[in-house]
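fold description:
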Amino acid sequence: MPVSQKTHERVAPEDPDEPWSPRTGWRDREDRPRDYKERGEAEIRSAHPRQRTVTVRRRQADGTYAETVYGSGSVPVRLLPGVTIDLNELFAEL
């Protein structure tokens, strides 16, 4: 996590990506996305290599999160207009 030079406080990323790990899968699926939501992250992406999917949770204007699961094609990155994640490329070596 980046550290602010002026205050030395931890600055949360606005756009976290969370890979799924076989060792900590339960925490990756439940705890971490909840932690990111509590911090008010704008967009949370969770990669699921075994399922070959990416789950994207995007904060809405009312503070709730809309969840979309992508299983093919490209995943748009809201905070970086024009940037996408190609799922075929992401999961190519699995």
Notes: Residues 1-13 have pLDDT under 50 and may be disordered. The beta strands are 17-19, 43-48, 53-59, 65-70, 74-76, 84-86.
